[in-house]
Every structure is written in C-alpha cells, then in structure tokens.
C-alpha cells in the first residue's frame, strides 16, 4: 500500500485542485459519499433440484420406508406417505481474481508468520505439496469453469496511464500462475480503481452465460485513484490523502459496479494491521463497501492458514448451506401421529448407496453433523393441520453428490370427506408427484396434501426460497343404490318415497332424497368402517311407513351390508338393494263383508268361551 514516505512532485497542486473541484474540507472522521444502490438481484434457482411425491398406502403395495402397511388386517385406506427431496447442483461459474501488487505486499503476514504477503497469495493460488490450490479447486469444481487474474498497484512516475494494472492471466483453465506475475514491483502504491478498470475490460471479454464471481485481494487502503481518466493521490497514507483516495475510489466503484449488477465480490484484507477502525490507513472501509453492496463478504486475513481457509470458503459458498425443508400440511391431511415413521436418507447419486440420517425419532450416528433437527408442529387453523420441518446443520454444505429425502405418513381428515361430499375435489395433482409405481396424484383430481412446501437455503451469501409442487390425495368412499317396490307386485316400483341416511347417533342426517321413477335412490360418499341408519320418512300414498330404520354397515374393506328392521340381510339384485313396502288395509268400497266376517266370528268365539267358563264356575260353587 505504501511508497517511500515522500511527496510526489506536483502532487500538492493536484490535491489542491481536487479539493476545490469537489468542495472537500479537512475533517477527522468519515464522511458520506455518493453511494449508488447496488445489489445482487439474481434470483436464478437453477442450482438446486427438488421434488415432492406421494404414495397411497391403501393400494395393497408394500412401501419400504414404513411398517404401517406390513401388519395383516391393518386399515390403511386413509393413509399416504409423503416424500420431499432435494439435490444441489454444481452450477458453472467464472472467477476473476484481482490481486494487489503494491510494495507493501512484500511485508510479512505478521510477526509470527514471516512469509511475504504476495508469496502467501501465490501459494494459495497455486497450492503446495499435498495441498490443492485455489485455481485447481475453481476449475475442478465444474468442467466449464474458467479463471482470469488481474494485478494492480500504483506507480508514482506518471499521473495517468495503464501501468497501474495488468492482465496476469486471461480467461482459461490454467491451474497455476508464475511467481513473477504476482511479485510486486519496487516502490509502488495502491490504486484500486486501476484494478477495477482492467477488471471491467476482462469481464467484458467474457461473453459466456456462466455466472461471474470476483475476488479482490489487498493489504491496505487505496492511495491513488482515477477520476474521469486522470489519476489523483500521492501514493502515501500521509495527511489527507487516505480520505480523498477513499472517497474517489468509492465513487468510482459505485459507478463501475452499475455495469455488473449480478457480480458478487469477495474482498480480502491480508494485512495483520488491517481492521483497525481508528486508523484510516488500516481501515477496510472500501473493501467492506465493495463486498456488502454486491452480495459477497469481506474477510480479514492475518496469516497464511486464514487466507487458505477464506479462499476455500469462497469455493464452498457456491454450495448450499443453512438448508431447511418446510412442509405445511393442508386442511385435508394430518400428520399420522399414531405411526408417522419419519425418515431422512442420503442417497449417493453415483453409487446409489442409501444412508439413513434420521429414524425412530432421532438423528442416527451417520446423521450427526448433517442434520440439526426434524420436527412436527400441530396447528389448529382453517387451512392447515400442522407442519413438518427438516433443518440441516448451519455450516453443512450441499452440492450435487447426494440427494436428501424426508418421508413420513399422513392421514386424510374429516374435512376432506365433508368437502368431497358437498363440493367434490378442488384440485389436480402436479405432474411428477407420484411415488414410484403409484398413480394417485399426477394429473388426478383430489385435494392438495400441502398448503405450501418450500426449500430455503443460502448460496453465495444470498438467501433463496423455492416451492415444491403439490401432490393430491383422494378419499376412498363407497355408495349404494336402493330400489323400492311393492311387496306383492315386485315390478311395481315406488317413486317419491323419501329417505334419510343418518349417522351412528341416528339423529344427524348424512344425506336425504326421494326415489326416482324407477324406484331408485343412490347414496354416495359413505366412509369405510362406518355404520349408517336408513330411515324412510315419507311413504308413497297408500303404503305403510316403517318406524324403525334399516342398518347400513360399511366394512373396512368397503363391503356394504344392509339389514332390515328384523336383522335380516337385504338381498341385492345386480347393483341394487331391493326393499319392499306394504299397502295399508282398506274397507271394501263396494259394501261387501270383507274383514267384518272375521271380526264377527272372533266376537262369537270369545262370547261362547266366556259363557262356558261362567257355567263351569257356577257348578263348582
């Protein structure tokens, strides 16, 4: 960062000129400068794949991830198993490394690590025996990745020109750089703006659609700066020079970055003295600004090991961290607390090997260091019954090596049955939401299993959220048709006979209706493993009205049995259950004796019996 402590010839005039032009005054603290609003607005989420699938457990198949369908006789017709998975992807990106070559880079890292700063950078880029360098890591991360390197300094012998920066390596896949290209020339200051200007030229030469990343390395504050193509500053940290060059550099950067709004910049201050906010010559204000405005980060690096760790972190930041899967269930399914069988697995995409990370309510030994928590939270809301959350360990990095899957059991709710009966299904399953070998969801009518399911994560210091697709569930119901006919003339079908199908309390009406012209009435949406009672509430004129109901039993397997008032099973003809009705007794309209004869005979028999009984008692007396 420094020159020998002397004023350059003519510099005082230049500083005075800039003071008048910009209206600057002497001050002791930082002042606000023009600060263009710059942010990394990229919302590209191509760096992750995810899917949500569903398996119907009532279809007789054997799901390998739960034992709830293994027991003989277990009722699974209302059960489903949810699957949510995610896989990171290695997105190609190109990296531009901008390196400070000021004379102070020949100073040691610190009093203990006496290695020159530029040499530490050289080794970090190239690697050492048994240690992979940053260049090798970057190009090895993805076969399309490319790297370029720019060096900058501040030569005191001219007021402007291109000598303050140079292209050390243009875009390519080289894994090494010559030491002579990193080693600083003698007696040079620090010109961030020169490095930025050449960096812009190099960035413009790269016309690929790959993401671009910049790493900016310096050991001190700027001591030169370009303003409108002319260089100002004296190359030292004496007097007001650090104030002016700082503000000029900030203004230059704010204008420059507007051309590269999606470029994250990672800045490294590699001096042990860097980070002293009370000392302007060691304050990383500009480096902090460059990173914070672009979605990168600033790191103070005091030794060689810290330098390598920070550069590794930059590579790791292209992976995913702070990953969470959040599944908020809809009102149509609930977490099957009786036996949820929650399971989280890690699948190697190359070998297919599956490792269980969570099972039986706990993180396994293989899951330690990967999973932070798996939780279920019940809620009582009109549109949700609860949520399931999977949180990975904060600093765990995810790339494309593995697929992570969480699965658990759910059960359809009463709400699903009610809405199916009154309104029918209200959604169709998104494409690709069926579990292997199942066909219950994709393109099928049903109810959404989740209100919303999302994946949240951090990549390159930026937060992202991506929603999962929506599978659907159905309710497995039954129906029956009743046919009403005359007790003697079975071909005489009775219409307009009214029925009510009531629930087990024999009061709540589940459904009602009247027979049609063919004597038929159909009841739908009956639940399995339930008993209903069928009441005849209005008979056809001239027919008796039964006081007691028929009993309708729906077995677990869906079989329907109807029993009459005496407990006899109602016969079934084809798809219809046949019940009959009896006519009321009527006096003959022609004046004939009809039943009066039988009544008279009965009276005579009773009278005779009474007389004989009386005579016998009298004889005994």
UniProtKB/TrEMBL annotation:
InterPro entries xref list: DUF7604 (IPR055384), Ig-like_fold (IPR013783), LPXTG_anchor (IPR019931), SpaA_PFL_dom_1 (IPR041033), VWF_A (IPR002035), vWFA_dom_sf (IPR036465)
Positions of transmembrane segments: 596-614
UniProt entry keywords in alphabetical sequence: Cell wall, Membrane, Peptidoglycan-anchor, Secreted, Signal, Transmembrane, Transmembrane helix
Gene3D superfamilies: Immunoglobulins, von Willebrand factor, type A domain
Database matches in PROSITE patterns: VWFA
SMART domains: VWA
Span of domain VWFA: 94-318
Domain of life: Bacteria
Pfam families assigned: DUF7604 (PF24558), Gram_pos_anchor (PF00746), SpaA (PF17802), VWA_2 (PF13519)
Protein name: Peptidase
């Amino acid at each position: 960062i420094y020159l020998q402590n002397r004023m350059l010839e003519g510099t005082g005039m230049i500083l005075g000129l800039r003071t008048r032009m910009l209206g600057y005054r002497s001050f002791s603290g930082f002042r606000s400068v023009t600060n263009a609003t710059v942010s990394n607005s990229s919302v590209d989420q191509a760096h992750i794949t995810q899917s949500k699938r569903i398996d119907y457990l009532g279809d007789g198949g054997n799901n390998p991830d739960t034992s709830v369908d293994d027991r003989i006789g277990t009722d699974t017709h209302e059960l489903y198993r949810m699957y949510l998975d995610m896989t990171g992807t290695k997105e190609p990106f190109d990296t531009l490394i901008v390196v400070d070559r000021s004379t102070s880079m020949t100073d040691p890292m610190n009093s203990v690590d006496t290695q020159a700063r530029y040499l530490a950078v050289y080794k970090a880029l190239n690697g050492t025996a048994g240690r992979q360098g940053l260049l090798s890591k970057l190009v090895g991360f993805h076969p399309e990745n490319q790297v370029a390197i720019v060096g900058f300094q501040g030569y005191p012998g001219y007021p402007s020109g291109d000598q303050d920066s140079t292209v050390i390596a243009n875009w390519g896949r080289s894994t090494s750089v010559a030491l002579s290209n990193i080693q600083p020339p003698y007696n040079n200051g620090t010109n961030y703006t020169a490095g930025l200007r050449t960096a812009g030229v190099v960035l413009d030469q790269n016309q690929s659609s790959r993401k671009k990343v910049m790493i900016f390395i310096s050991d001190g504050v700027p001591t030169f700066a370009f303003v409108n193509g002319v260089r100002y500053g004296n190359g030292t940290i004496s007097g007001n020079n650090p104030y002016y060059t700082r503000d000029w550099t900030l203004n230059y950067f704010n204008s420059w970055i507007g051309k590269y709004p999606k470029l994250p910049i990672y800045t490294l201050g590699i001096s042990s003295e860097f980070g002293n906010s009370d000392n302007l010559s060691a304050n990383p204000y500009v480096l902090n600004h460059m990173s914070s405005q672009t979605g990168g980060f600033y790191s103070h690096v005091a030794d060689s090991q810290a330098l390598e760790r920070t550069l590794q972190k930059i590579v790791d930041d292209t992976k995913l961290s702070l990953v969470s899967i959040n599944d908020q269930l809809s009102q149509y399914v609930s977490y099957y607390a009786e036996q949820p069988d929650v399971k989280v697995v890690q699948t190697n995409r190359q070998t297919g090997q599956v490792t269980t990370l969570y099972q039986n309510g706990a993180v396994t030994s293989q899951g330690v260091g990967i999973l932070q928590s798996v939780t279920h939270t019940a809620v009582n809301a009109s549109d949700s019954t609860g949520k399931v959350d999977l949180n990975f360990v904060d600093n765990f990095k995810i790339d494309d090596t593995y697929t992570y899957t969480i699965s658990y059991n759910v059960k359809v709710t009463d709400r699903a049955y009610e809405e199916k009966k009154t309104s029918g299904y209200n959604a169709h399953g998104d494409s690709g939401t069926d579990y292997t070998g199942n066909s219950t969801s994709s393109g099928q009518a049903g109810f959404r299993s989740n209100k919303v399911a999302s994946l949240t994560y951090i990549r390159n210091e930026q937060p992202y959220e991506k929603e999962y697709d929506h599978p659907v569930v159905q309710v497995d119901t039954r129906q029956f048709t009743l046919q009403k006919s005359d007790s003697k003339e079975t071909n005489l079908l009775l219409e307009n006979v009214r029925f009510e199908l009531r629930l087990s309390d024999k009061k709540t009406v589940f459904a009602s209706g009247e027979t049609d012209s063919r004597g038929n009435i159909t009841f739908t949406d009956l639940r399995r493993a339930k008993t209903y009672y069928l009441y005849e509430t209005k008979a056809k004129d001239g027919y008796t009205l039964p006081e007691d109901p028929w009993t309708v039993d729906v077995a677990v397997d869906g079989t329907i049995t109807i029993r009459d008032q005496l407990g006899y099973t109602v016969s079934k003809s084809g798809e219809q259950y046949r019940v009959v009705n009896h006519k009321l007794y009527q006096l003959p309209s022609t004046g004939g004796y009809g039943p009066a004869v039988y009544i008279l005979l009965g009276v005579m028999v009773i009278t005779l019996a009474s007389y004989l009984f009386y005579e016998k008692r009298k004889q005994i007396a």
